[in-house]
Every structure is written in C-alpha cells, then in structure tokens.
Design brief:
Length: 119
C-alpha cells in the first residue's frame, strides 16, 4: 500500500472520529410544551443545558392573544386564541433567564417563568 493511500485512510478515519466526538458532546434537543391561559403559563420553570436546542410548542388555550418572550435569547413569538406554535432556540449561555408574556398587563399579572440553563 502506498504512503499516499495510507495517509488518505488515516485522514478519513480521523475525520470520522472527530465527527463522532462532536455529535456525542452536543446535548439532544429539549422538547417542551407550554400552555398559555388567560394570565398564566402552565409551566413556570424550564431546565436546559448550555448549547442545548430547545423546541418549544406553545399553545394558547385562553381567550386573549399571548406571546412568549425570552429577551436574552431573542425569542418573541405570538399566538392567538386557539392557536399552537412550535419554535426553536439554542440555550447558549448558563444562568437563569426570565420568560414572559409581554402583552400589556400580562407580565404584571404574573404571566412569567424562568428558563434555567445549566453548564
């Protein structure tokens, strides 16, 4: 076997090992369902890991329009009464982050929660 062929096989094996290492270290997507009813979320704490994709299904079971906002992750999604929306974001920073419905008066009435992102 030629040196060139051995080198190509070595590089291909190294690339495959590198891909396997990257996929093993990335956390699986977190799937969360949150229901909004008039002036309350049914889930007030969500836990994720740094770097974890979060797939959130947001259902509005109330009579009013609601939104789901996490300013630190640029999330701002709105659902009308009876609608369900699924969206994704990556929790790329550790800490505790507020989420809320910022329709006027809703945050003040207690429509808030916390996203806890662990290292």
């Amino acid at each position: 076997m030629s040196i060139k062929r051995i080198l190509i096989l070595f590089l291909a094996a190294a690339a495959l090992l590198g891909l396997a290492a990257c996929s093993a270290s990335a956390p699986a997507a977190l799937k969360v369902e949150v229901k909004a009813r008039d002036i309350a979320f049914d889930v007030t704490t969500i836990e994720a890991k740094v770097g974890q994709p979060v797939e959130l299904t947001y259902e509005n079971i109330g009579a009013l329009e609601h939104n789901f906002v996490i300013e630190d992750f640029n999330v701002n999604e709105t659902v009308k009464p009876g609608e369900t929306l699924t969206f994704s974001f990556v929790a790329d920073e550790a800490g505790a982050f507020d989420y809320k419905c910022n329709v006027p008066g809703h945050t003040e009435a207690g429509m808030v929660g916390t996203l806890v992102v662990k290292p």
